[in-house]
Write a structure and sequence with these properties.
Chain lengths: ~140, ~140
């Protein structure tokens, strides 16, 4: 349910572009695929304890910071809420993990990640980032 | 993780309109809200066993049948895959359940359901359903 995240969380917290988010998600999918393919099968999803709950909260916090970073770069439309975007993304990831662990392939996680990235895309401005724009609204 | 579903699964399997899907999801949210508000708090999400895995598969199968039903009523765009739509919807529901159970409020589930319904909306035709159209492509 809460695979260890092999990714650079700082990259998520300081997102420069939506592309980085997609790359981060792709890294998670690839990591999960290796886990499912390992000779020692990962156990079925366990319940949530304090440790996994804290891990989930950290990842949510990283994602939320990442969306705030996009907002500061004027890449999010007005009204887009970084906390809501992070929650939707986390829900897709966790549901995708669960269904993939049961199915023992990453198809469901990939479908869920695509849904999550499309949800984010709806909140992106069309304008390209302005270079050297350091203004934090 | 897999709350009992208080809803009429036949209504899901024989979807006449996307509105029915939204109503079904809303019933799940309301049910989960009552569970979280009950004096006897529901336990933390447990792991996945054979029983909950079978329950998840049944719900996925109901949703998939529902999207096939929409497809037969010409309400889905060409290329929309009922199985993929069902997987994305299930991932959102399950991730939403998990985050809501940890947060002890249904906010995350509501956010996840909204994302899932928007994902479905992307696959809908614009044309209104033709009355008495019983053709099954």
């Amino acid at each position: 349910m809460t695979p260890d995240h092999p990714t650079d969380q700082n990259a998520v917290r300081n997102l420069d572009s939506p592309r980085q988010l997609a790359d981060w998600a792709q890294t998670l999918v690839a990591h999960h695929k290796r886990q499912l393919a390992s000779p020692a099968p990962s156990p079925r999803p366990a319940g949530i304890d304090d440790s996994s709950s804290a891990s989930l909260h950290r990842t949510w916090d990283d994602l939320s910071a990442g969306f705030v970073s996009l907002q500061h770069k004027n890449l999010l439309v007005d009204g887009a809420d970084p906390a809501v975007l992070a929650t939707a993304f986390m829900a897709a990831l966790q549901g995708g993990y669960l269904l993939s662990a049961i199915a023992r392939h990453t198809g469901p996680l990939e479908i869920a990640v695509e849904m999550a990235l499309r949800q984010v895309a709806r909140s992106l401005t069309d304008e390209p980032p302005r270079p050297h724009d350091r203004s934090h609204r």
